[in-house]
Amino acid sequence: MNFINKLCAAWAGNNSLLCVGLDPDLARFPAHLQQRPDAIVAFCKAIIDATADLACAFKPQIAYFAALGAEAQLEEICAYLRQHYPHIPLILDAKRGDIGATAKQYAREAYDRYGADAVTLSPYMGFDSVEPYMEWSGRGQIILCRTSNAGGSDLQFLNVDGKPLYQHVAALVANKWNSNGQCALVVGATFPEELAQVRAIVGDMPVLVPGIGAQGGDIEATVTAGKTGAGAGMMISSSRAILYATPAAGEDFAAAARRVALETRDAINLHR
Ligand SMILES: O=C(O)c1cc(=O)[nH]c(=O)n1[C@@H]1O[C@H](COP(=O)(O)O)[C@@H](O)[C@H]1O
Question: pLDDT for 103-134, tens place per residue?
Fold first, then answer.
């Protein structure tokens, strides 16, 4: 099944627009896991098992693994996801962007090595830096449009031909670039007005929306701004608020993560 169809099925199957971000930070792990050599795998598997029926996607962020030389653990976690939860889209958050020949290697990494259904990409090197990913039929390309951080405004808000640059990116991706029908965009929950602008430009194209939870984005404003006519269209992503839901990071971390994921999914559904 291609990325977009899998996403639509997960939205419906789990009645959820919540994407669970996997950003494993050893320093915030529960004490009983910290010394284990397989701490990252054990932590992520427990979070996955505790939230899989509440999520429309899982999104591992590659930097948290690569910084520790833990790519083998990321491979194991991705294999676990594909084996046990093949109906839930696996998004590799890598924000890649490079010339075509190099892009092809990044695409092999995302789709072949990790088996991701989709990968996050930067648009700023243009279409020939995104096109190589489209050789993997049915896999998704999720392209940065209006990011959740304040500094995103430095470039994305620049006025180009009377419109902010992020709106050009939205229009370009939704029309010319989406030749395989597997593209999506990233718009931060911290900018609901811009999310509404993007929704108006891109029709029903899916949008990955990070920025609720730890970054303080408002759920009601996000859902109201970003939902499609069918009350879907978004992967609203939260990492730290779910992963580290217990202040003291106790042995009950997975149950606490489930509690927060459930509350978040339900808070999102209230406004669909
Ligand atoms: O592409 C992303 O996922 C992303 C885009 C963006 O604009 N802002 C953003 O925070 N992210 C990622 O989403 C996650 C947000 O984590 P939390 O703030 O802990 O929920 C991190 O892994 C970020 O790298």
Answer: 999 999 999 999 999 999 999 999 999 999 99
Query: From 3.20.20.80, 3.30.365.10, 1.20.1250.20, 3.20.20.70, which CATH number describes the 3-269 domain?
Result: 3.20.20.70
Percent pLDDT > 70 in the chain is 99
Look at residue 249 in the predicted model and tell me its pLDDT: 66
ipTM given for this complex = 0.99
Is the pTM higher than 0.95? The answer reads yes
Residue 176 is among the residues annotated as catalytic for this protein? no
Residue 233: exposure state from Cβ atoms within 10 A (0-12, 13-18, ≥19): buried
Average pLDDT of span 18-46? 95
Ligand 1 closest atom vs CA 188? 7
Given the residues 95, 104, 163, 176, the one annotated as active site: 95
CA of 224 to the centre of ligand 1 (A): 20
213 CA to middle of ligand 1, Å?
11
Residues with CB under 6 A from ligand 1: 21, 23, 61, 93, 95, 120, 147-148, 186, 188, 210-211, 213-215, 237-240
What confidence tens digit (pLDDT) does each residue in 203-219 have?
999 999 999 999 999 99
Kindly give the number of the ligand 1 atom that is closest to the alpha carbon of 212.
20
Cα 148 to ligand 1 centroid, rounded to whole Å? 7
